[in-house]
# Entry
Amino acid sequence: MAEESERRDHDETVEIHDEDDGTVFRAEAEAGSRVSSVVDRFYKDHLHRDRRFGDRLGCEATGDSVFGHLDETIEHYEKTACLKLVWLFAGDQGGAWA
Amino acid sequence: MSQAGVALRRRSGWRLGLTLPRTDPEVAARTLKRHLDEFWINRSLAKKGWTRQPLDDLHVVVSIPATRADGAKDDYYVHLGAEYYDVYPATVLLVVPDQGWSRARAGSPWWPKLKPPGWFGLHDDYEYRDPQSGALLHKGQLVCFSMGAEYYVSNHAPTDEQRWQQGRHTVAATLSRLSEVLSQPYYEGPDAPRNP
# Structure
C-alpha cells in the first residue's frame, strides 16, 4: 500500500483538450515515462487512429508543439517546456489555400 | 445571412453545385447546444472572458476575446447558425454588437486585422457561382475555413482529413480555430479604432 501511494505521488496527470470535438482526455503518467507514451495513448485510446500530417498538439500555456519533445521524460518536459500539463489537440483543416 | 449552397470539387476537376441540406431544426438545436455546453465547460471559457447569447434555438452569438501582441484584449462577436448542423459545420458570421447583430464590415472596429495562417481566410464580400449553372451559391462575408458552413459553398478542395466530419468535429472545432487566429501571432488589432 505504501509502495502504491509512493508511486502515485510521482504520477503526473496530463490533460489533453481535443479541440476538434471539445472533449477532454486525461492520462496518468509516471514522471520518468516518455512524453511519447502519453501521446501514443491519446492516439490509441481517444482518437483511435495514427498520427496524420497536419495534426497539431501543443502546450496550452506556450503553444510549443509537444511533438518536439517526444523523447523527453514527463518530468523533464514539465520543468523545461510546459509547466502545466495541459495540451491542445487539433487535426488538420482546410482554408484559404485548400 | 448569405445564401448557402455547396460546391464540391474533386481533385480530378469536376464540380457539383448543390444546396446544403438543412437538418431537422429540433435535432440541430439540441446538438449545437450540447456541443457548445461541453466545450464551454471543458475549456472553462466563461473564466477566459468568452460570452454566449442565444438568439433563438438555432442561433447564438459568441464573443471571443482576441489578444494583441502587447496583451491587450478585444472582443469579437461571432454569429453561429445551426441550419445545417452537424452534418455540416455551423454557419459563421462576424457581427457588430448592435441591436440587430448586423454583419461586421472591413474597415470597422468589429473587423479584425489578421495575418492569418494558410488554413484561414477572411473576406468582406465574396461571391461564388456554380461554374456550370451560374447559380449564385454565396454572396457576402466569408469566414473561410473548413470548420464553417460557408466554406463549403465556395471554390475549395479540402482533403478528407481537412473536411468537416460529422461525429468527429463539433462547434468546438469552429470556435477553437477562430480563437486561434484571434491570438498571437496572427491577430494585429481591430481594423479601425474602437471608441472607449
In short: The interface with chain B takes residues 17-24, 52-54, 88, 90-98 of chain A (CB under 8 Å). The first strand of chain A starts at residue 11 and ends at 18.
